[in-house]
Amino acid sequence: MKIWDPLYECMPREDLEQLQLERLQATVNRVYKSVTCYKKKFDEAGIVPEDIRSLDDLEKLPFTTKEDLRLNYPYGMFAVPLREVVRIHSSSGTTGKPTVVGYTKNDIRMWSNLVARFMTAAGVTRDDVVQIAFGYGMFTGAFGLHYGSETIGASVIPMSAGNTEKQIMIMQDYKTTALVSTPSYALTIASRMEQMGVDPKSLSLKVGLFGSEPWSEAMRKEIESRLCISATDNYGLSEIIGPGVAGDCECKCGMHLFEDSFIPEIIDPDTGKVLPKGSVGELVLTTLTKEAFPMIRYRTRDITSLVYEKCDCGRTLARMKKTMGRSDDMLIIKGVNVFPSQIEEILFAIEGCEPHYQLVLEREGDTDVLIVRIEVTENIFFDEMKRQKSFVEQVERKLHSVLGVSASVKLVEPSSLPRHEGKAVRVIDNRKR
Amino acid sequence: MLRIKNINTYYGQVHALKNVSLHLNAGEIVSLIGANGAGKTTILNSLSAITPPRDGEILFEGKAITGLAPDRIVEMGISQVPEGRQVFKDFSVADNLELGAYLRFRSREKRSIIKQDMEDVFILFPQLSERRKQMAGTLSGGEQQMLAIGRALMAKPKVLLLDEPSMGLAPLVVQEIFRVITRLREEKGTSVLLVEQNAKAALKIADRGYVLETGKVLLEEKASDLLENREVQRAYLGKEKKEIWER
Q1: What is the pLDDT of residues A117-130, one digit of tens each?
Q2: Which residue of B has its CA nearest to A85?
Q3: What is the ipTM for the molecules in this complex?
Q4: pLDDT digits (tens, 9 = 90+) for A396-419
Q5: Buried b vs exposed e over A199-234: b needs ≥16 C-beta within 10 Å?
Q6: Cα nearest neighbour of B211 on chain A
Q7: Of residues A18, A23, A29, nearest to B216 (C-beta)
Q8: Cβ contacts (< 8 Å) between B18 and chain A: which residues?
């Protein structure tokens, strides 16, 4: 399969590290000079740009957090005058002030090329018709994929989100070959198609580019079989650039992270210490090529791990595993890190189990107890107590083998779990801290 | 081809280069841009060991060249064309070119080969061919620049360090010089590190560029992107640096 930018995507590691060091030093020099927040943070940590003499020295620099972005709302973190900024995006700001990010003309071009890289890796070519079912607006997702498609030369249908029936009609009439949406919306489309009696095989659709929310391998398989497409994952966040940080290649064995533009680190979310290669922890990103909004060691709060072994596709870039959840969501049960998303994936994988569940944590004496409440559905409602019992045991066994801690499963009435914005309230922690 | 890591160069107490890291690939033209005193020439002089860096690492084709004498560095394949041409004014054009091959004479390379290389320089710069017996001091500025480049080429470099080749020259002559630089890369695969005040012209022929300020690298980008960067555009026009990177 084609590689969009072989010079950078297949660069020998030694050359890549030289390039990273040059760009890191330039970025650090620049932010120290132009962004007051960074200068202050570096000064407080007793660091000057000249202390960065190797990639390992990155560790000496202080982290940047979402809180820093809020404190410098709206333009305080920009490294260029506003007149050089040609685009402003921001987060939704559901929890407090939104975070604001900016792009220069060069940033937009660089962003477009990064998106073109993962779209090409997913199999999109200039012959494709790309339907973008992300919401346009302040959100970076739609624009990123839009520019990436245009850069490749594909035909873009800027559908925006919602109106599922119309999405399906356009898909049929305009002969859409690539769908861009959240993975959950892809399933919504699949369900509506089933209701409408539309056979996915009758469509021209061949590939899906899904992102902006964590999703499991089980969900990938489900989307692939229900829509008859290749479902690919990509990763990004608006604070860093939007989509275009990492994306699947045809091997689907981890998303290639564009290390010529971003340096990834994996840290322990509690201590902030950098973990050895291959460890699971929080992803921290430093931008290397951004002009308007450089980020130094930004804590993404996403939990993942990086693989540095060579990939069959020929790219030399490290691969990032699917995000397992947010470090904010991480539960420590009997000293073991557990993510609600892991449990979700197990429930999803067990046939017939719609993941409406709730995790309850109790402390009995000195021991943590994990209870998983699952709403029964028609599929797992058994008349026979024996079958019900064996189902519960099967889930418990599976949970224990994957999580490494035991959990007791309780089946509850349909729709009995409290809902919040359509989703069940996932975690109730009754342990005393 | 050429890889520099964290070099620090001083003029006495003056810290002229601070942790400069950069690289040059085979057959690549890379431009260094920045205001006066940013450290562009110092990078070239550090590479050629005229002002050796106090620390840091310079690798040429995988070998460390830090600490080597200037003549060793020329022998390995790095030639510098100094700012202000610095031709030997009282010598003829041909003698100037022969001096460029001094190390090759010293190592007893066949004179016929060196003669052939001189003819190649004359093919590259036909104006010099007509004036081979003329004293270098009587040449025009443009011709002296051509001679300085020709002299550097006589050492058969893999990397050419060019310091302000367009300085004081008429636009048409500048075009001619830049055309030759591109031709050298295409025909011989020579890598070029190009220092220029005339950033626009330099970035037009370069693949990549580094923006320097007060001894530090501030940006590394594709040359075409740097041309689009309005702050670089303003830097090229010579505005106060303070206005450019600060709000």
Answers
A1: 999 999 999 999 99
A2: B230
A3: 0.89
A4: 998 888 888 889 999 888 778 776
A5: ebeebebbbbbbbbebbbebbbebbbebbebbbbbb
A6: A26
A7: A29
A8: 49-50
